[in-house]
Amino acid sequence: MSTSNTYTIPQFLDYLGVRGAKDDALHVIRYDEQSLRVQSPPVSIYFYSLSLKEYVNGPSQMMDLTEPYIYLDTPHKTLEWDNCDASPGSFLSGYGLLVSAELLEPYVKQYSFATYSSHEALYLLPEEKTLLQDLFEKAYAEYQKEPFTKPIVVSYAALLLSYIQLFYERQFQSRATLYHRVVADFYAHLEQYFTPENDLNALPTVAYFAEKAALSTNYFGDLIKSFTGQPPQTHIQQHVVQLAKTRLRHSDATVSEIAYALGFEYPTYFTRFFKKETGITPTVFRQQ
């Protein structure tokens, strides 16, 4: 056990009680073939973990796992679990693919879902589960060989990542009713942010609105872009520009006063921003 509670792959496998480790940088677990630790306080990992999980003969009581799900745990992420209250007779089925940061980082960095939170797991349709399970089974079969070929297992992990990206895009659309509410709330919160009773000292960030939606910043950003065609930062910038234009045209406030009222730290930042977005300075716009 690591004294810092940040585990490498070998340390984490030992902590879980997993047998059959063959490589310090790579491991494939089949959950129903192992008797794993059922409870853990918060621990940190220093590797990537792709997990396909499903409770058989009844869902766990700790989560609503009525569908098989998959997600990616990343280096330095904190994990915590408690399966002690699982439904009687149920057991965890699926696979875990653990890969060192050095091996998988070149592939992971192109996908925004790598920073999604655990509660933003990807819930799979039956045909998606079948496809991903087939890839996990192939990776597991390769890992069982003596000797196994490390690049082949890593290539399966990379292929899993590409399918996860595709299936997350499907999940956004299949949960349209729920996510349209998130989009509508985003627009409402954006309007509310600039109301007179708000004492602004900074421009709003994507992270601010993501927190309002109880989502991670990247998941929120991908969701908004999926439904509107534009990332949330673009919506924020466009809204600020429209507010600035309205105040420049219909108020006697100075450019500096407008800049501070919109949350800019310095009027020069506002002038630079406005010119970048419109092609002219606030002063020139007001004179037109």
From TrEMBL:
GO terms for molecular function: DNA-binding transcription factor activity; sequence-specific DNA binding. It comes from Hymenobacter coccineus. Gene3D superfamilies: Homeodomain-like. The keyword Transcription regulation applies. The keyword DNA-binding applies. Residues 180-288 form the HTH araC/xylS-type domain. InterPro entries: Homeodomain-like_sf (IPR009057), HTH_AraC (IPR018060), Tscrpt_reg_AraC-type_HTH (IPR020449). This is Transcriptional regulator. Keywords: DNA-binding, Transcription, Transcription regulation.
